[in-house]
Amino acid sequence: MKKRFIAGAACPKCQRQDTLRVWRENNIDKVECVSCDYHESRLPDSAQQSQSETPPAENVIGIFKPE
To answer: If residue 29 lies in a helix (H) or strand (E), which one and from where to where?
Structure first.
């Protein structure tokens, strides 16, 4: 696991610039500020898009298969 700083990014909590670092752990993006106790976890953008594009099973009426 390699932690990288986000150049030019400002912390949403303390507003200090260049203090945020990011890394991926178990396919979850983690962000933390090295100056304050701010931290955030989220799914990567690709995972969020694939979840939003998949229709829920209860909305599927049937699958049409022409023969």
So the answer is: strand 28-33
pLDDT at 45 over 70: no
Local structure of 46: helix, strand or coil: helix
55 vs 1: which has the higher pLDDT: 1
Name every residue whose Cβ is closer than 8 Å to that of residue 7 and which is 6 or more positions away in sequence: 18
Sorted by sequence, the CB contacts under 8 Å of residue 50 that are 6+ apart come out as none
Six token digits for residue 44: 């990567």
20-25 sheet: strands from edge to edge: 4-5, 20-25, 28-33, 39-42
